[in-house]
Amino acid sequence: MESMISFFKKKVQQFPDNTLLWEKDSRIYQSTSYQEAYVMVQQLAVGLKEFGIVGEERLALLSEGRKLWLISELAVLSNRAVTVPLSIKLEPDNDLIFRLKHSESSYVLVSQNQLHKIRMVKKDLPALKKTIVFTPDIPLEDDEVDIQEIMDWGKRRMLDDTELMSA
């Protein structure tokens, strides 16, 4: 059976310049091609690896549907880690805590709209190492990191190691 990652790579080769998705940015929709998405996936995957996220590590994903949701899902799977998708309708007090504890997620990828839920419950999640926030330019707490920072680490690492560029 073909993995989601190998299927995605095949589609990138077939349709590099075709639009993979559209996302509304302010008032206009911006397109992202298969090739652009693939580069973002690689940068995030390498950045996550540099961050120590590989293998059986579990990352919860709490976000509305958006480009970074897809990029994150594919990057995590590229590192053979596990994504734990969570509904944005979960209430922080019981359901969210239960799912995060039960899944043994040590990281959470989260949108700005959902970040308050993680901040409310993180004291009850001793296994939670870091919260990776999708939205740039907002005040972050000590245990939070901007996803763009991780992607920038990946980009720099890929530029330093040309073998990673062809992976």
From TrEMBL:
GO terms of molecular function: ligase activity
Domain named AMP-dependent synthetase/ligase: residues: 8-144
Signal peptide: none
Alphabetical keyword list: Ligase
Species per Swiss-Prot/TrEMBL record: Saccharicrinis fermentans DSM 9555 = JCM 21142
Pfam families attached to this UniProt entry: AMP-binding
Domain of life of the native organism: Bacteria
Protein name, as recorded: Long-chain-fatty-acid-CoA ligase
PANTHER family tied to this protein: ACYL-ACTIVATING ENZYME 16, CHLOROPLASTIC-RELATED
